[in-house]
Amino acid sequence: MRKLYQIIFKLLNQIFRVPMWGEYMSSEGKQKAFELVKSQNTSFEYLITDALKFKTTKKFDALGLIYAHFPSEIRKGVHRHLLSFLNPGGIVIFEAFSKSQLENSSGGPKNESMLFSVEEIKKEFCSLHFEVLEEEEIELQEGTYHKGKASVIRFVGRKIK
User: Fold this and answer.
1) Domain ranges in the chain?
2) How confident is the model at residue 6 (pLDDT cuts 50, 70, 90)?
3) For helices 2-11 and 27-39, what crossing angle results, to 10°?
4) Does the predicted model carry a pTM greater than 0.85?
């Protein structure tokens, strides 16, 4: 996971030169985010908020959704809301557990409706052109509760309109 974050920070810092906004709910996650930002010699705006209540007049060139699992009753609305802050041509970088993750013990939601399928991704992010969209098995090494075989969906998509 750390390598993925490093790639994201490098990409965003070198190509888009945008401030980063993160939504982490734990103090440990917040500390990890600040350490990584500092190591990449960049900056970001740190905000903990309800994703549906987030407001800004800014538009962004990139949006990262990394293990952002929302309850099924609000998920589509959250994605639509967050995409509204993305400039045309902006990119979304996404990684989350797939529905196949229920077979694994390496973490993630145990409620299938909070997990993803490739078909759901295509529907929920229909305003994107997918440059990469794949489901794959990876090996997690992210501490005690996120360790072992995991099934994830990853995509990079560009906003069409």
Assistant:
1) 2-159
2) low
3) 50
4) no
